[in-house]
Design a protein that fits this description.
CATH topology: Lipocalin
Strand content: over 45%
Keywords: Signal
Pfam family, one: DUF2490
Protein name: DUF2490 domain-containing protein
Structural class: mainly beta
Radius of gyration: 20 Å
Oligomer: single chain
Organism: Robiginitalea myxolifaciens
Largest sheet: 11 strands, mixed, barrel
Shape: globular
Number of domains: 1
Distance between the termini: 36 Å
InterPro entries: DUF2490 (IPR019619)
Number of helices: 1
Length: 278
């Protein structure tokens, strides 16, 4: 039997995911009634407009400030029919080295009730604590990113008497950035960025639905200045519903991104540029 290298954080994370999925699968077999065959809901369309701020506050610390506007389809309008969620994600990030950083912070997500037949509340808040570990690998002119993000999540439904439920999210993302018209990322560079992210979940309410989301995305980006980049792309996602592990949701999402990295320090206090983009 091959041994798992316990000094490798990626191996530890994948081992944790396998153990988590195994434990949740066993609990599903004991109590949840699954359909005879896996069922897929019809694809749902969305639009996400995201801003990512990496604000340099010292040699070793960056303040992460993100705001996301997420729209859901309606019967009349695909992708952008109605507002679904607004995210405010913040964190303090520590630069351990040029190719590794860690972050800790919180999230306030505002959820809007998009069900036209619902008699519940129109808006409910959701709270999260998150920590992240990001690795970067240069391969010639290509950049490869490994991101491990763990979230502790308190959410509730729209019913007036809905109580908060607690879940953990275990996320791993692999992202590649390939410059198209240059050998490095500089103003005027176009790049393509395929990525995949696996999101697992656990908690008392998660009986068998360990796979919350599998996201596959391709993005086209353009570097405007050393501190400003724009990008956009299409994401396909699928995952088990919380109500029944045998029923999968799926969807297509257009995503638009704005990355900005202000740095107000004096020149003599600056470190060499590092790779921190989400």
């Amino acid at each position: 039997m091959n041994r798992v290298n316990l000094r490798n954080p990626m191996a530890l994370f994948l081992l944790l995911v396998l153990l988590l999925a195994g434990g949740i699968h066993n609990s599903s077999a004991q109590g949840e009634v699954l359909p005879e065959e896996t069922e897929y809901k019809d694809p749902f369309t969305k639009l996400w407009i995201n801003t990512y701020g990496n604000i340099r506050i010292s040699k070793r610390f960056i303040w992460i400030a993100e705001t996301h506007f997420r729209f859901d389809e309606t019967e009349e309008t695909p992708f952008v029919g109605q507002i679904g969620q607004i995210y405010n994600r913040h964190a303090l990030s520590y630069i351990y080295s040029k190719y590794f950083n860690v972050s800790l912070g919180g999230v306030l997500r505002v959820n809007f009730n998009t069900d036209p037949d619902s008699d519940g509340r129109n808006v409910v808040p959701e709270y999260r604590i998150w920590h992240q570990y990001q690795f970067a690998q240069p391969l010639s002119s290509i950049m490869v990113y490994h991101r491990i993000r763990i979230e502790h999540r308190w959410s509730q439904g729209f019913a007036d008497d809905a109580e908060y439920i607690y879940r953990n999210r275990w996320r791993y993302m692999l992202r590649i950035k390939v410059p198209l018209n240059s050998t490095k990322f500089e103003p005027g560079t176009w790049y393509i960025s395929p990525e995949s992210e696996l999101i697992m979940q656990s908690g008392k309410e998660v009986v068998g639905s360990a796979l919350e989301d599998l996201r596959l995305t391709t993005t086209l980006g353009y570097v405007l200045t050393p501190r400003l980049t724009i990008a956009g792309g299409l994401m396909y996602s699928q995952g088990q519903t919380l109500e029944n592990a045998g029923i999968f949701k799926q969807g297509f999402t257009f995503r638009a991104h704005l990355y900005y990295s202000p740095d107000f320090r004096k020149v003599r206090n600056k470190l060499p540029a590092i790779h921190l983009e989400d």
